[in-house]
Design a protein that fits this description.
Blueprint: H1 6-11, E1 16-24, E2 28-35, E3 42-47, H2 57-71, E4 77-83, H3 86-94, H4 100-116, E5 118-124, H5 131-142, E6 147-151, H6 157-160
Parallel strand pairs: 1-4, 4-5
Antiparallel strand pairs: 1-2, 2-3, 3-6
Length: 180
């Protein structure tokens, strides 16, 4: 496995992925993810499983990251995780938790990242900048389906409340994921 440094990442920018996720207590979890420079990332939304209680906001947010890392195609790269949960970002960056449930979940995330050769960097973003992920955390429930997935460009912009522009690669005019 190569050592990831700026030269390796510059030579192969496909090794940099982004995942923006959100969790909703009553509904489920949603996220969009893809190569950092990609115009049309994939999205995923699912309701909470019956055997999966919503324990806390932090735990729900970590479940979004866990779901993303379990499904990722990234190998030997960097995953930049955008979350509107300051405590979840702290947990991932520091590697410490207060509860047994969160510790178990973070351990799984880190073990899976090690298997895939992925380094994770968590970045907190304001809730107002996470509108697409917030919408996705409700989408499966709103669609009366257990799971929903597809490409971001295929979402109904008005329902999602997200201005999406391929020319600007913007998912929200104020979002951290915006690149002009």
């Amino acid at each position: 496995m190569p050592i990831l440094n700026s030269a390796v990442l510059e030579a192969n920018p496909n090794r940099i992925h982004c995942c923006a996720s959100d969790a909703s207590g009553p509904d489920g979890v949603g996220y969009f993810t893809g190569v950092w420079s990609e115009d049309n990332p994939v999205y995923f939304s699912r309701q909470w499983y019956l055997e999966e209680p919503f324990l806390s906001s932090t735990n729900g947010e970590l479940k979004g990251l866990a779901d993303c890392i379990n499904r990722t195609t990234l190998r030997n790269g960097v995953l930049i995780w955008l979350t509107d949960s300051m405590s979840a970002a702290y947990v991932v960056n520091k590697g410490t938790c207060r509860t047994w449930e969160d510790t178990r979940l973070v351990t799984h995330i880190f073990e899976r990242a090690d298997e895939l050769g992925i380094q994770i960097f968590a970045i907190w973003i304001p809730r107002e900048a996470n509108t697409l992920a917030d919408y996705l955390s409700h989408l499966a429930t709103l669609s009366h389906r257990k799971e929903v997935s597809g490409f971001v460009q295929d979402l109904n912009e008005e329902e999602a409340g997200i201005p999406y522009s391929t020319s600007e690669r913007a998912y929200n005019s104020d979002a951290a994921y915006t690149r002009a």
